[in-house]
Design a protein that fits this description.
This protein is about 60% helix and about 0% strand. It has about 90 residues and is an all-alpha fold. The relative contact order is 0.19. The protein has one domain. α1 packs across α2 and α1 packs across α3.
Length: about 90
């Protein structure tokens, strides 16, 4: 499925993306540091998933964690295998 065609996200969508981004960082044991390539990667993954239509915060987080672990492992960065299920 191709990405949705919109130039920007509305404020409600941005709030979901920010929450998913922060939850993903926490699940991976990463800090929100602007100059950290891992942080940038997580942000790009969350945005990419949203562009493909994912809007559920939990699914965004879970899929972003999964994809980030794969991509970080490819670069030789090990993210903790924290439990991504939040109650």
């Amino acid at each position: 499925m191709p990405p949705t065609e919109h130039d920007s996200f509305d404020p409600a969508e941005i709030a979901v993306l920010v929450g998913a981004f922060e939850d993903t960082l926490q699940a991976l044991g990463l800090t929100n540091c602007q100059n950290d390539p891992a942080t940038t990667l997580v942000a790009k993954i969350v945005i990419e998933l949203a562009e493909y239509g994912e809007t559920d915060p939990k699914r965004l987080r879970d899929e972003a964690v999964k994809q980030a672990r794969k991509r970080l492992a490819w670069f030789g960065v090990r993210a903790p295998l924290a439990n991504t299920r939040h109650h």
